[in-house]
């Protein structure tokens, strides 16, 4: 192990009551990032049940709002296969990351894991991808909140003003310092989004025609068991579905604040099981009853009245989702800045000013992206292709290979497992290149066709699909 791979790691304390030592040691032999002891703030306070709800809220809110429109592009059957396939891979890769982190507990983030397996350059690239991913999904959360405010107020203000309000709401919620404190509001957030989506699912089944379709005369319903999209449209839809459950790299900072990190796999399994079942059932029902007339976000699919009700119920959850995304990105920067400092777990002016500055910066960048790329599903697809594909698929494959380096010359089963993880890395490369190309083409076409106006306009484009 080269010295390059061991930089920026806090030395473990010698006892639970000692002060934190500042130093550089092998990440392989390091203890937890957040220490326990007298005179320091205890960050490791999250139970596995609260961890499950935080994971649910990180994954569930945005994905369920965009998958029905991806179903229209792909068709019901390929869409369902994509949901099961991508969520299954995301589930497995989340478990790989958790096992790797338990084997190497000095890793606070996916970037630390990148440093361990590839050195400082890989760490910095991974850190940038992590920030890009969660700044973009933080922006999508702000788009969701501003869309809700637009719907509830009958567009009484310019959309940009609602985006500013959304950014302030998200930023204030994200400024809560510990995941333990956020966990309590994630219960309400998850319940509100789940109920809001359920209202829409029930609402679309009561309509004779989709709310957005012509209400008289013949019309093209647009339901297909198997779709025939272009490559750009198909890869964008697949990337959107993948991204809906690909935020698993955000699980790692939460894991660092768990009371018992060994219970991580239990929290992940509960989370991903519920998410996969909900995504598949909700999206298939909404697409079956709405066809091509499904809205994105899907809360607008059952007509104006149900749209207002669902957004009113789901507003808390949309805000909490955006806040979690901003919090995760801010926590990464915060730990990078203070990792080798006594201020990391001290209630000092440096500690609080650093933390609040990180939250404010991440909120501002997310707001700028939300206003610049206002189509909801394109935001998520962009995040999925550029950042989540290497983070959620490629790097976990590499992590597994790092911990099982001798498998390539082992039994037939071990060689097969080794080869499958190499394939996993190949899938991530394909999705990164193909997905980025596809979403760029789709965004250019949307601007050319007038589906969205220029950046920072007052038009409400978030319902475009």
Give the ordered list of helices and strands: HHHHHHHHHHHHH
The figure for the number of domains is 1
- Rg estimate, integer Å: 22 Å
CATH topology: Amino acid/polyamine transporter I
> What would CATH call the architecture?
Up-down Bundle
Shape: globular
On the 0 to 100 scale, the average pLDDT is 84
Description:
The chain has 465 residues and is an all-alpha fold. The chain contains 13 helices and no strands. The chain has helices at residues 48-74, 76-103, 110-118, 120-153, 159-174, 179-205, 231-243, 251-255, 264-290, 304-338, 349-372, 376-403, 412-448. The longest helix has 37 residues, at 412-448. One of its GO terms (cellular component) is membrane. Keywords: Membrane, Transmembrane, Transmembrane helix. Its main location: membrane.
């Amino acid at each position: 192990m080269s010295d390059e791979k061991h930089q920026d790691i806090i030395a473990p304390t010698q006892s639970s009551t000692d002060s934190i030592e500042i130093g550089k040691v092998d990440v392989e032999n390091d203890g937890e990032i957040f220490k326990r002891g007298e005179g320091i703030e205890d960050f490791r306070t999250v139970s596995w049940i609260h961890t499950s709800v935080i994971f649910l809220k990180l994954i569930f809110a945005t994905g369920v709002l965009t998958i029905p429109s991806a179903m229209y592009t792909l068709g019901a059957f390929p869409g369902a296969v994509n949901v099961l396939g991508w969520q299954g891979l995301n589930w497995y890769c989340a478990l790989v990351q958790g096992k790797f982190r338990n084997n190497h507990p000095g890793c606070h983030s996916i970037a630390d894991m990148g440093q361990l397996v590839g050195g400082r350059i890989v760490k910095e690239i991974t850190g940038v991808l992590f920030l890009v991913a969660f700044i973009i999904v933080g922006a999508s959360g702000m788009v969701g909140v501003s869309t809700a405010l637009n719907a509830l107020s009958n567009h009484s203000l310019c959309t940009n003003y609602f985006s500013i309000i959304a950014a302030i709401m998200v930023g204030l919620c994200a400024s809560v310092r510990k995941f333990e404190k956020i966990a309590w509001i994630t219960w309400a957030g998850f319940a509100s989004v789940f109920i809001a989506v359920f209202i829409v699912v029930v609402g679309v089944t009561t309509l004779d025609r989709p709310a957005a379709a012509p209400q008289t005369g013949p019309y093209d319903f647009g339901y297909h068991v198997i779709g025939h999209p272009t490559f750009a449209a198909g890869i964008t839809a697949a990337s959107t579905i993948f991204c809906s459950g690909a935020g698993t790299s955000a699980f790692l900072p939460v894991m660092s604040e768990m009371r018992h990190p060994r219970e991580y796999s239990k929290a992940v399994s509960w989370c991903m099981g519920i998410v996969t079942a909900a995504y598949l059932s909700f999206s298939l029902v909404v697409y079956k009853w709405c066809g091509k007339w499904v809205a994105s976000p899907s809360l607008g699919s059952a007509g104006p009245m149900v749209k207002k009700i669902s957004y009113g119920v789901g507003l808390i959850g949309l805000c909490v989702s955006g806040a979690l995304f901003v919090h995760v990105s801010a926590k990464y920067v915060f730990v990078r800045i203070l990792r080798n400092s006594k201020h990391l777990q001290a209630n000092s002016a440096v500690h609080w000013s650093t933390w609040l500055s990180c939250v404010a910066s991440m909120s501002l960048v997310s707001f700028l992206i939300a206003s610049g790329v206002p189509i909801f599903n394109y935001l998520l697809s962009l995040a999925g292709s550029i950042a989540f594909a290497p983070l959620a698929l490629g790097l976990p494959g590499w992590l597994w290979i790092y911990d099982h380096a001798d498998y390539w010359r082992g039994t037939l089963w071990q060689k097969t497992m080794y080869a499958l993880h190499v394939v996993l890395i190949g899938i991530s490369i394909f999705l990164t290149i193909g997905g980025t190309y596809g979403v760029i083409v789709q965004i250019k076409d949307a601007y050319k066709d007038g589906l969205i106006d220029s950046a920072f306009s007052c038009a409400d484009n978030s319902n475009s699909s």
